[in-house]
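Open question from group meeting: does this chain pack into something compact, or does most of it stay loose? Before anyone orders reagents, we agreed to write out a predicted structure and look at it together. Recording both the input and the output here so the notebook holds the full record.
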Amino acid sequence: MSRNVPSRSAGAQTFPSFEVSLLSSDLAVRDALARILRELDPLSLDIEETGTVELVLAEVLNNIVEHAYPTEAGGGQIRVFCQPAQDGLHVRITDCGAAMPEGHLPLGRAVEVDVDFSELPEGGFGWFLIQDLAKDVEYARVGEQNRLSMRLPVGIPA
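Structure tokens returned:
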């Protein structure tokens, strides 16, 4: 489900904020990413900016599906709120799954990739990519809800 909310300014034009809701599953993440990118069409993002938005949101949403909502619990709801602004796309993602380990974001360190393929770690790339590509990344656990916010520096007028 996606819905528009009151407009905000991005450059000289006004673009609406919007929210996309999904239930925790791999297929729902793919569908939600497609809906988000369609909603961003009016911003006329270039291919690199579109790729950044898709990569960061895919990493976050897939982490929520994999870690916040255990498969045996049947998943849960995730909400993605996007607000275009002059300094980029502001994104807030909420869910009621398990909290982040130790109550804060992972460090997101670069992983050594100049090793034999068999020695590559299974994970660890996601949070590095998120924190490298997004700005102002913040996480809070409020009651039973996880709240992740960030700014993606895309769609910024030259």
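Observations to bring back to the group:
Residues 5-12 have pLDDT under 50 and may be disordered.
Strands lie at 2-10, 13-23, 77-85, 88-95, 135-142, 145-152.
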